[in-house]
Automatic annotation (TrEMBL):
GO terms for biological process: plant organ development; RNA modification. The keyword Repeat applies. It comes from the Eukaryota. Residues 755-833 form the DYW domain. Transmembrane segments: none annotated. The keyword Iron-sulfur does not apply. NCBIfam families: PPR (TIGR00756). This is DYW domain-containing protein. One of its GO terms (molecular function) is zinc ion binding. It holds the Pfam family PPR_2.
């Protein structure tokens, strides 16, 4: 390689003393410990000593001899003791470090070599550039790139390895632009060149460019190999774009390239991390059918899929396979097994696996702590939590979050908040997930206002909420009396630029709708750029809730025009909308053809919608025939739909039949008992309907009806029979009742009033109290918003209509089944509820 040759040195000139020592003598010499041979082997010196080669040549061979035998320290002693080091000596020493992945030593030697005036050849510069790539040392890599150009190592066809090394160095250092410049100037590109550039694009999330390069390499005659395909598939799988990854797998097979274990493992792992466990297992089965043997990583991912789906039998089978291939004691497989058994409720088996893991890591401990916490054994979980540090395992934020989650999930809020407050005193900083756990736990336990306080405190300490934070807190305020809180959360979403997240946009549409703000829901939907089926369902259900069936049908057709396929929820809403419009034939056509047109099999929700559709139009016998002839067992919702229809059309026989069936499904529901009792009184003995035994009147009326309303950002609770707060309001209510007397007498004409007690028995109904207080204590431009625990009676419904007309106020009342929007004397339910 053009190295300078020194004059031959006389063999009589003694080498360094330790070179002539035996192994036993070397132990007592001054050779450093790391330079001594590890094994008790006596090595024969190279034959070059006997041939009388130049000393530095013999020493170079000795470096190679020691490094090949694994004695890197001895090789370095020889190298450091050389009086003259040529390119071959530097190459031997650098190669020894590079082979073992000790890249910082490679780079240090390279700098020393150049400093001593020895320049690398094209073979050595390739190795040093590879070390720069692994160490991400762009500064030295750029110097070597410049040197390669000056020395003519990059201009010829045979210099592809050097060009590839420069390319990989820039890619690993994150300089994709410079890598692309090198790529474009290369006269010849081999498979490694294309693989490196595609890897760089995938690493920088430039997915389209990576796909374009794949097409370009094939046009230029270079067929992608298994590494090329694996690079693309694994990158797409890690990014969560699994549909593209599966499509690439198909192209890979079409090209005649057999997917290997890396390919399949990438897909299985991607599906697991995207919470698509069923598809992960399907992918694993395809791999086994293809004859590819799984490795430890594949088995661990498949077990994780079983854990997410709580498939104990399949997880146990994979456990057996892990034993068969010898990976069961691998910490990765062990951790997955602990998680799987714990989530499947087999906490004893999980603990046995945990104890069998020879070298437990933090994930092992966290999995076991989480298993105990999820099973409700917070004491056991805390016991492990306290033991961790005595075993040399430092608890991390996930460990603390797991314990906090376990306590709050099991109702011990005080202990959860205590751990939350003390975790930073142990050197563990709270993260977003720590706050999310408290918010979600508070919402789950019904402490909505506390969740909002935690949410505000989180922002005050400059912790940025993520989409999980928002999705945890929004459902708590998706009601009529929390509209201003929904707007507050929306402002936070907008401030942190989270509105573009599809799940958050959908949750906002739902929250605005349920809080009575249909315009707000429509505004979010209109700005939603990536609408999916759920997005369309949210806005369709919102208009259905607000009594706008025409809009429901309009959105349904727009949805289909934009190529979004309707699903179960869409079709249920559309059938109900047609029922509200009185368009029986259109709704029936959707129902009869949904399997053929939309690949949706009718279920109980669709049958209930059809009963509602026919019942609204007075076709009660057809509605009953639907229930009688359906292939599924009718549920409470179906009979309730028939009861509503029969009640509205004054059919006592069908109403009593439906109520009787409801009482058989829910025998302990006092409201159903009241309905049955009232209908039996109305029916007398004239109808052949089985008599149902009902509980005593006192037991049936044990619950007090209540409602809540929001006035000037304060929520007030009213119960049936309460007194009005002020004399003025009491007098006004009495006057209103007198004025509306004639109109109230016609309330419920033609219907069966069966559900609530008369006011002379139970007292004034709570929604009337809430309405009158709202009229005199809230601004005229604000709507009156009320949430009620029971269905509105006919009298209260008529009262709300008349008040809305007399005072020009919008009144929103949400009962368990309907949202009533009263305006100008009309209700959005069109008096059918």
């Amino acid at each position: 390689h053009g190295r300078l040759q020194e004059p031959a040195m006389a063999l009589a000139q003694a080498p360094p003393p330790w070179l002539a020592l035996s192994l036993d003598e070397a132990r007592s010499a001054h050779v450093p410990h790391h330079a001594r041979p590890v094994q008790e082997t006596r090595a024969r010196p190279p034959a070059s000593f006997a041939r009388g080669e130049p000393r530095f040549v013999s020493e170079t061979k000795l470096i190679t001899f020691h490094s090949s035998a694994g004695r890197l320290g001895a090789a370095r002693e020889v190298f450091d003791g050389m009086g003259h080091r040529d390119l071959l000596a530097w190459s031997a020493m650098i190669g020894a470090y590079a082979t073992r992945g000790i890249f910082h030593e490679v780079l240090a030697l390279a700098v020393s070599m150049i400093g001593e005036g020895v320049l690398p050849d094209r073979f050595l510069i390739t190795r040093i550039l590879q070390a720069c790539a692994y160490a991400e040392d762009q500064r030295l890599g750029s110097v070597l790139h410049s040197m390669a150009i000056r020395r003519g190592f990059m201009g010829r066809v045979k210099d592809v390895p050097v060009g590839n090394s420069v390319l990989v160095m820039y890619v690993k250092c994150g300089e994709l632009g410079r890598a692309r410049a090198v790529f474009d100037k290369m006269r010849r590109r081999d498979l490694g060149t294309w693989n490196s550039m595609i890897f760089g694009c995938c690493r920088s999330c430039q997915w389209e460019e990576a796909r374009r390069l794949l097409d370009e390499m094939r046009r230029e005659g270079t067929e992608p190999g298994v590494v090329t395909w694996n690079t693309l598939i694994s990158s797409y799988a890690r990014s969560g774009d699994l549909d593209v990854a599966v499509d690439l797998l198909g192209q890979m097979e079409e090209c005649g390239v057999e997917p290997d274990v890396v390919t399949w493992t990438s897909l299985v792992s991607g599906f697991v991390h995207s919470d698509r466990g069923d598809e992960a297992l399907q992918c694993f089965i395809r791999m086994r059918v293809a004859g590819v043997e799984p490795n430890g990583m594949t088995i661990a991912c498949a077990i994780s899929a079983c854990a997410s789906l709580k498939l104990l039998r399949q997880g146990s089978q994979l456990h057996c396979h892990a034993i068969k291939i010898g990976t069961v004691n691998n910490v990765l497989s062990g951790n997955s097994l602990v998680d799987m058994y714990a989530k499947c409720g087999e906490i004893v088996a999980a603990y046995r696996i945990f104890n069998e893991i020879p070298e437990k890591d933090i994930f092992s401990w966290n999995s076991m702590v989480a298993g105990y916490a999820q099973a409700g054994y917070c004491g056991k979980a805390y016991e492990l939590f306290c033991k961790m540090e005595s075993y040399g395992i430092q608890r991390n934020v996930i460990t603390w979050n797991t314990m906090i989650s376990g306590y709050i999930r099991n109702g011990d809020d005080e202990r959860a908040f205590e751990l939350f407050q003390t975790m930073e005193s142990y050197g563990v900083k709270k993260d977003t997930a720590s706050w999310n756990i408290l918010i979600a736990g508070s919402v789950h336990n019904g402490y909505f206002d506390r969740a909002l306080r935690i949410f505000r405190q989180m922002q005050s300490v400059l912790i940025k909420p993520d989409y999980i934070t928002i999705l945890s807190i929004i459902p708590a305020f998706a009601n009529l009396v929390a509209a201003w809180k929904v707007r507050e959360i929306h402002a936070c979403i907008f401030h942190h630029n989270l509105e573009m997240d599809g799940k958050i946009a959908n949750a906002l549409i739902n929250a605005y709708s349920k809080s009575g703000d249909l315009a707000g829901a429509c505004a979010v939907f209109d700005r939603h750029s990536s609408r999916n089926t759920i997005s369309w369902n949210c806005i369709i259900v919102a208009h259905l809730l607000h009594g706008s069936p025409t809009k429901v049908v309009d959105y349904f057709f727009k949805m289909k025009q934009q190529g979004v396929l309707p699903d179960h929820t869409t079709l249920t809403a559309v059938i109900r909308a047609y029922g509200m419009e009185g368009m029986v034939s259109e709704g029936r056509e959707i129902f009869l053809n949904m399997d053929k047109d939309y690949n949706v099999t009718p279920d109980l929700d669709h049958y209930a919608a059809m009963v509602d559709l026919l019942g609204r139009s007075g076709r009660l016998q057809e509605a009953y025939a639907i229930i009688d002839e359906m292939p599924l067992a009718p549920n409470l919702t179906l009979w309730e739909s028939l009861l509503t229809s029969a009640r509205m059309h004054g059919n006592v026989r069908l109403a009593l039949l439906a109520a009787t069936e409801m009482s058989m499904i829910e025998p302990n529901d006092p409201r159903i008992q009241v309905v049955v009792s009232s209908l039996q009184d109305l029916a007398g003995q004239s109808f052949d309907v089985p008599k149902v035994t009902v509980h005593s009147k006192e037991r049936m009326l044990g619950g007090v009806e209540s409602c809540s309303t929001e006035i000037r950002n304060m929520v007030y609770l009213f119960s049936t029979g309460d007194k009005v707060a002020s004399e003025h309001e009491a007098a006004e209510l009495k006057l209103m009742m007198i004025e509306m007397g004639p109109s109230m007498l016609s309330a419920g004409n033609g219907t069966l009033e069966v559900e609530e007690e008369k006011e002379e028995l139970a007292g004034i109904h709570c929604e009337k109290l809430a309405i009158i207080v709202g009229i005199f204590n809230s601004p005229h431009f604000r709507s009156i918003r009320i949430i009620k625990t029971a269905r509105m009676c006919n009298h209260c419904h008529t009262f709300a209509k008349l008040v809305s007309e007399k005072y020009g106020r919008q009144i929103l009342i949400k009962d368990p089944k309907y949202l009533h929007k009263f305006e100008n004397g009309n209700c959005s339910c069109e008096d059918y509820w």
